[in-house]
Amino acid sequence: MSDNLIYRRDFLQKLGTMSLGGFVANGLSAQAVGAQKKQGRRTWKPVSKRKVRVGIVGYGVCRFGAAFGFQDHPNVEVVAVSDLIGERRRGLMKACRCGNSYESLEMLVKDTKIEAVFVATDAPSHARHCMEVLNHDKHVMTAVPAVFGSIEQAEQLLETVEKTGLKYMMAETSSFRADCYAMRQIYRAGGFGRLVYSEGEYFHYHSKPIGSFKDWRIGLPPLWYPTHSTAYYVGVTGKRFTSVSCVGFNAGFPAYKSGANKYDNPFTDEVALFQTSEGGSSRMLMCKGIGGLVVERGRVFGERGWMEGTEYRGATKDLPDTSRPPLPPGVPAGGHGGSHGPLANEFITSIIEDREPMVNIYEALAMTVPGIIAHKSALKDGETIKVPQYTPPRG
Ligand SMILES: NC(=O)c1ccc[n+]([C@@H]2O[C@H](COP(=O)([O-])OP(=O)(O)OC[C@H]3O[C@@H](n4cnc5c(N)ncnc54)[C@H](O)[C@@H]3O)[C@@H](O)[C@H]2O)c1
Questions:
Q1: Stronger pLDDT, 158 or 40, i.e. the higher one
Q2: Atom of ligand 1 nearest to the CA of 217
Q3: What is the spatial distance between Cα 184 and Cα 191, in angstroms, rounded to a whole number?
Q4: 283: nearest Cα among 197, 204, 183
Q5: Which of the listed residues 119, 121, 295 should we mutate to test ligand 1's pocket, taking the one with most ligand atoms within 8 A of CB?
Q6: Residue 284 pLDDT
Q7: How many Å lie between the centroid of ligand 1 and the Cα of residue 350?
Q8: Residue 250 belongs to what domain range?
Q9: Does some domain include residue 348?
Q10: Looking at residue 198, which CATH number applies to its domain?
Q11: Ligand 1 — pocket residues by CB below 6 A?
C-alpha cells in the first residue's frame, strides 16, 4: 500500500508541473486557500431569533446525542433528553445542560413542547424511532443509516415523511466533510461534467467487536452501513445508483464464522461496483478486515475534471465558493471532519427557513438502500441486481 501512496504522490507532483491540455493545473489547492479566506470573511448571520424546541435521544458508546452541538446553538432550546439507561440519560442531561429527561424516546415524543428530535439511538431502531417522532408531529434528524437492512422499512419511512410533510434529515457525516461538500459545489457549477467514475471508502478495522446496544454491530453486514461511502457519489451529484454487483471477503474474525452472528452474515468486507444514473460507475466499499486501516474518504472523476482530497484538477477556472456555511459562535465544528456542527446547523436552519434539509429522505434512502442491495449481491456471488429508486416528486 505504501508503494502505491508514494507513486500517487509522485504522480500528483508531476501533474502539478505539467500542462494538462487546456485543463487548469493549479487546482483546488490554490482555490481552497481562496475559499478559506472567503470563509474567514463570511460570518454566521442569524436568520431568525426563534429557538427551535429540541429533544435529543441516545447517549451510547459514541456519546452521539451530545456530539452535534445542538445545546450550543443560539436557535435551539434543548427541552428534554432521553436514553433507556439511567446513567447514560444523566450523562446526556449533563452534557446538554438540560434539566429535563424522559425514560424513553416513546415517552419524550409525547411532550407537546418539543418540535424536533435528534435520534442518536442504535442503528436497527432508527427507522422505527423516526416514524414514532414524525407521527407525533415533530421534525426529525437521525444518525446514519436511515434504515437497517430492510427495503420495507425504507418504504414505510418514506411514506411517513411524505404523509406528515415534516422535515426529515439524515446526519450523514461524509456529506458535510470539507472535501465532499466542495465536490458538491463544484459538481453543481459544472466543474466535473458527468461523473465517469467515483470511489467512496469506509475502512474501519476492528478485529474485536465494538460493544453497542443489544450488540447490533456484532457481525453486521458491512454495506448495511454504506452512507460514509455512498455520500461520495449521491451526496456530490444528487444522482442515483441503478444496479450493483458486490464481492464479499471474510477476514476470519470470530463474529463472522458460520452461524456466529444474528445476521447470518459471512463477510467482514464488501466492495461494490454500482452503475449510476449518469451512465458511469462507482466503487463503494465498507471494510473491517484490512489490518489497522480506519478512514472515510472518496474521490470523483468527471468528464471535465477530477478531485481527491483538496486537489481539484479540471477545465473550470472560476470555481464557486467551496467552503461550508459558517457556524454560529460557540457551536463547535465537531467530529468526523468537522461535520457535526454543520449538520445540526443545517437541520435547524431548514426548520426555521421551512425548506428541505440537504440530506432529506430521498437522498438518505438513495445513500442507504443501495448498500442493502449490494449485500444481497455479495451473498449471490456478485450477481448484478437492480437498485430501487427514491426520487422526489416533481415541483
Ligand atoms: N460518522 C457517523 O455518522 C457515526 C459514527 C458513530 C455512530 N453513528 C451512529 O450513531 C448512532 C449511535 O451510535 P452508538 O454507537 O452510540 O449506539 P449504541 O448502540 O451504543 O447506543 C444506542 C443508545 O440508544 C439508546 N436507546 C435505544 N432505544 C432507545 C429508546 N427507545 N429510548 C431512549 N434511548 C434509547 C440506548 O439505550 C443506547 O444507549 C448509531 O446509529 C450509529 O450508527 C454514526
A1: 158
A2: 19
A3: 10
A4: 197
A5: 121
A6: 98
A7: 24
A8: 28-36+174-326+361-386
A9: no
A10: 3.30.360.10
A11: 57-62, 64, 82-85, 88, 104-106, 120-123, 125, 143-144, 173, 212-213, 216, 336
> Would residue 41 count as lying in a domain?
no
CA–centroid distance, residue 173 to ligand 1 (Å):
15
pLDDT value at residue 7? 28
Share of the chain above pLDDT 90, in %: 84
pLDDT given at position 207: 81
Residues 139 and 188 reside in one and the same domain: no
Cα–Cα distance, 24 to 305 (Å, whole number): 9
* For residue 29, pLDDT beyond 80: no
**Once rounded to an integer, what is the mean pLDDT over residues 80-107?**
98
Q: Are residues 165 and 192 located together in one domain of the fold?
A: no
Same domain, yes or no: 128 and 75:
yes
Instruction: Please report the atom of ligand 1 found closest to the CA of residue 173.
Output: 3
pLDDT (0 to 100) of residue 393: 85
Q: Is 2 within a domain? A: no
Mark whether 208 and 158 lie in a shared domain. Answer: no
Prediction pTM value = 0.92
- Claim to verify: residue 227 and residue 315 sit in the same structural domain: yes
Those residues with Cβ within 8 angstroms of residue 297's Cβ, 6 or more apart along the chain or in another chain = 179, 200, 201, 232, 309
